[in-house]
Fold this sequence. Notes:
Blueprint: H1 2-12, H2 16-30, E1 34-36, E2 50-52, E3 57-62, H3 69-86, E4 93-98, H4 106-119, E5 123-127, H5 129-137, H6 141-148, H7 165-177, H8 189-197, H9 202-212, H10 216-224, H11 230-248, H12 252-264, H13 271-286, H14 302-305
Parallel strand pairs: 3-4, 4-5
Antiparallel strand pairs: 1-2, 2-3
Helix pairs in contact: 3-4, 7-13, 9-13, 11-12, 12-13
Amino acid sequence: xxxxxxxRSHLTDMPGEQFEKLIHHLLSLRHPxxxxxxTHGNLGDMGADGLLLWERELWACYSPQTExxxxxxxxxxxxxxxxxxxRPDAFDTFRFAVNDLKGIHPxxxxxxxxxxxQLRPRRVIPYGWHALWADVxxxxxxxxxxxxxxxxxxxxxxxxxxxxxDLEVLLAQLGEQRHVAEPLAAIPExxxxxxxxxxxxxxxxxxxxxxxxxxxxVDGYYQGIASPDEYxxxxxxxxxxxEQVRAGTPDDEKLWAALQQYILGNANPSLSSMYCAWIVxxxxxxxxxxxxxxxxxxxxxxxxxxQP
Length: 308
């Protein structure tokens, strides 16, 4: 929010020369192939305020803070004519940055249309506030502070419950019941096979087994609530999140940690709440909402079956 407000404040009263410097600075931070072109004697800038070499883009900067739109139109025409005359083989895209938070002046938009027809198959692309802000948001913190000239006090956001308010009720109930409820003595064989099929070992295996000992309490919770579709809604969201995280997280421990955070949030959990999260994950595991199910008829060989 601070970066957005600072940038908008800068742009509000920024004259043309300062706007060009801002664009040069931003593009230099974003693109290693950006060339900031300066004027030189009678050569001027040869119709380009900047170039993206790899993308073959020629950049021109306009600052419509002036009340005289005719001056802006004249500059647009002049830059385009110079580019075509002096750099005819250097660009495929003519991109112009506009320092106007409200948008493009109607007469300038007409010039854009005419220029696009003239340049085909080359392209004419405007670069306004929204595109500029999107590029600023892609900078890392140090680069953004360098561009805006101010410190951006960023802190990691800490939040509590990650899934739903309804799950908060479940976690509270589990926290009370698991202390007095008897844990299951044996784990159903189908789940043992599923654990081995997914290759879960070490701490993840241990946490899953611990959770399974009280996962039947979650089943009792969903059977006792008045909303019959609550389980389907929560399980559906959990399943979608699991698939998204698994696609980019091959490490089992990181995947487990992401599932736990989805339930508890990223605040440091207590030992009791962490164990309750294991119970919830184990329940969804047993209901086949997360992790892969072994093919029908599959069973590990004797050597695998004897391993934890």
